Amino acid sequence: MNLEVREENYIENLNWRYATKKFDATKNLKETELEKLIESVRLSASSYGLQPYEVIVIENPEIKEKLKAAAWNQPQLTDASHIFVFANFKKIDASHIDDYLNNIAETRNLSREDLKGMEDMLKNTVLNFTEEEQQIWASKQTYIALGNLLAAAAEFKIDTCPMEGFNSAQFDEILNLEEKNLSASVVATVGYRSDKDPMQHLEKVRKSKQELFHIL
User: Fold this and answer.
1) Which of 2, 86, 113, 121 is deepest in the core (most CB within 10 A)?
2) What range(s) does the Nitroreductase domain occupy (predicted)?
3) Comparing C-alpha atoms, which of 139, 184, 183, 187 is closest to residue 162?
């Protein structure tokens, strides 16, 4: 497949995707499909590459029912094959940065001394944020990962619905996130659209390029 065809397919797939409101509860992701989505999220960009969040992937029906009740009984939570809960760190300390730098050193065959400048920069920046600033910053990073998930799922012809309509405190309690220094930031339900979902037949509504982009 040449580059031009791949580019056309990518745009077509983005046009194909929509926020699925009604999933087919009888269709579940294959393990290979789930792994591709997980890897797509893992490869997401983040500020400094620090990835100040974790992702909880739920397939257990009982947990999905509890989360549905904490999301005003929206059916996507139980009808979708899986739920991706993006949870940001509530507090970032030196250990998170040390773990990251150790990973860099091991992956790139470097010494920690080689990374001293990066260590000083990260600790003088991130550790000087207030706790509230850390949470806001970390939460923003989860949305970058969410975007990667949505685009990757569209490429694989898997349906998604990004969701902010949930009680974060209740999600934290159900998933025991508080004790893990995490808080639910944003959610995506993942699976396959129902034939009965009328949303799939609607034209996609977006701003025109002239409205949205300003090239200077």
Assistant:
1) 86
2) 15-192
3) 187
CATH for 176: 3.40.109.10
Whether 87 and 141 have beta carbons less than 8 Å apart is answered as no
CA contacts within 13 A on the Cβ side of 212: 5
Whole-prediction pTM: 0.96
Half-sphere exposure (CA, 13 Å, Cβ side) for 196?
Answer: 5
Q: What is the DSSP string of 97-134?
A: HHHHHHHHHHHHT--TGGGHHHHHHHHHHHTTS-HHHH
In Å, how far are 158, 174, 209, 214 from 190, measured between CA atoms? 7, 20, 29, 34
Q: How many domains does the chain have?
A: 1
Residue 134, domain extent: 19-92+129-212
Q: How far apart are CA 164 and CA 168, in angstroms?
A: 9
pLDDT, residue 1, reads 59
Contact 104, 115 (CB under 8 A): yes
1 within a domain of the structure (yes/no): no
